[in-house]
Amino acid sequence: MNLFRAxxxxxxxxxxxxxxxxxxxxxxxxxxxxPQVEPWVPAGVSSDRFESHPAFDPRNGDxxxxxxxxxxxxxxxxxxxxxxxxxxxxxxxxFSGDGVEADPWFAGDGxxxxxxxxxxxxxxxxxxxxxxxxxxxxDGRWGMPERLPAPVNSTGNEWFPRLDRDGxxxxxxxxxxxxxxxxxxxxxxxxxxxxxxxxxxKALNTAGDEYEPLPSPDGRSLVMMAADGLYxxxxxxxxxxxxxxxxxxxxxxxxxSEIGALFSPSGHSLLFARDLKGDRSGxxxxxxxxxxxxxxxxxxxxxxxxxxxxGASGHGR
Length: 317
Hints:
The structure is a single chain. The protein is about 5% helix and about 35% strand. It has two helices and 22 strands. The strands form six sheets. It has a four-stranded antiparallel sheet with strand order 1-22-21-20, with no helix packed on it. Strands 2-3-4-7 form a four-stranded antiparallel sheet, with no helix packed on it. Strands 8-9-10-11 form a four-stranded antiparallel sheet, with no helix packed on it. The radius of gyration is 19 Å and the shape is globular.
């Protein structure tokens, strides 16, 4: 996994698996004999480059994602729309700027989107990744992105901003004062308008590298990406402290390159990317935590269930 975030800085068998899922997954998730993981290869989006960090627009279903080189460099946020013939050729997001940009995430009803960027701000061409936020009006037009202030952003790098339902904004950072090389942090804005930032603690962080925190829709689980793949932490109540994280089993983690996770709105599915190496580079996969919901959405809408190529029931490119 160090390969993927180097750019930031330069950036037992079935019974055991069933037991793990029963103990570690969110309360609404039922244990299975083995995790159900399948490719999601949307025609028009999947390419020989690296696709990752998916986000679906709650207002119109547009698909935002990050495309980079096979070596996971040169990140750009692209958008594809679902047309009559499937996903349209991806184009840069309307709010794109200079520098590299990644990690799009929609908050609430889709009127606000968080992302990270090295774009120029205040006349300064930046090298470190910062957290940005952009909002749109009632007609769907994106406004001018704003860089979140200190102490949310630091002189180091920040990435993967994700809001929990309790109002905390979780993110990763290599700022000073952490427990390891890179840590999970969280920030909250008070009634006085000031931001408070704190380390997410030893249940999530180690002396190594932790990068991407994703709270579940019900606030009881958190999937996070560390140096060697995806982990899961949970708590009994959204207001309680996180219990120590546990590494997710195969076939969720296969080679430690799993990255950019996204829960479905129900929390019953998880979409993430994995580096398949060679010509295929980064590809999307879906973990079915509970049942087979129709997510990711099929495109065109008349397609089977969205688990394969748009307009077909298979998985091929």
